[in-house]
Design goal:
261 residues, mainly alpha, 93% helix, rod-shaped
Length: 261
């Protein structure tokens, strides 16, 4: 009985040590998973920051290219205005010279006058043609600049869209991983609760077995005491019979004196 009791206590202690070991292993596993989860989140944050940094660098480079292009357009416009100003000054000089010549040579023939007027008209037409060509060139440059700006804006919007899609996908991955961790934790808690209930049932059964063992041991002791008393009574009866037999049925003395002593 005591050996069974000690064995049961040893089993209980061994089971407790096993539960503690499993509990430590579970804590270690959850800590490892937590560190892994934090590393994944830190890596995703670092990748997101790097992507945002690259996006801002591309945006700044595009803005610098636009500023340089606008600066070049302004320089070309200033050169064009300077050239037109020089042409205008030269044209006024020519016209003044022509008017001076015409005023000084009114007596020249009308043929020379008409020829000079034709030259002036041709020159004016040439200046107007140059002005129209300059306006057409500037219009083409403006359209090209607008097309480039629209292309840059479209590329920037596409990059922002891709960055947002990557961010949304990363958020979904993180949420899925968190749900997976929560599910694992729930399963771990359910397993530990099941083990706890099983251990409680085992403890209850062990207590019941100890009660039954004690009851059985008490019954056995009572039976042993009863059998010992019966043996003692039987031995006394035998001695009494032997005393009567050896006394020759002489009742002068008490045949049970030895038993009463």
């Amino acid at each position: 009985s005591f050996e069974l009791k000690w064995a049961a206590e040893k089993d209980a202690e061994e089971y407790k040590r096993q539960c503690e070991r499993e509990r430590r292993e579970s804590f270690a596993f959850r800590n490892k998973e937590g560190r892994k989860h934090r590393k994944v989140e830190e890596r995703m944050k670092s990748e997101q920051l790097s992507a945002d940094h690259e996006s801002f660098e591309l945006k700044w480079a595009a803005e610098r290219d636009v500023d340089q292009y606008l600066k070049n357009c302004e320089d070309e416009r200033r050169l064009s205005l300077q050239w037109r100003g020089q042409e205008s000054v030269r044209h006024r000089g020519v016209m003044e010279e022509l008017r001076s010549i015409m005023s000084q040579k009114d007596h020249e023939s009308m043929v020379l006058k008409w020829a000079a007027e034709d030259d002036v008209k041709e020159y004016l037409d040439k200046c107007a043609s140059n002005e129209r060509a300059s306006l057409v060139f500037r219009g083409k440059e403006a359209r090209l600049r607008r097309l480039k700006e629209e292309d840059w804006k479209s590329q920037e919007l596409e990059e922002m869209k891709e960055s947002f899609e990557l961010e949304v996908a990363a958020g979904r991955d993180v949420q899925a991983y968190v749900e997976k961790c929560k599910k694992r934790n729930r399963l771990s808690l359910a397993f530990r609760a099941k083990e706890k209930r099983r251990h409680a049932n085992w403890e209850k059964q062990r207590a019941q077995m100890e009660i039954e063992d004690r009851s059985r041991e008490t019954k056995i002791k009572a039976l042993d005491a009863r059998y010992v008393k019966l043996a003692q009574d039987r031995e006394r009866a035998m001695k009494a019979i032997e005393a009567i037999r050896h006394a020759g049925r002489n009742f002068a003395t008490n045949p049970f004196a030895s038993l009463l002593d």
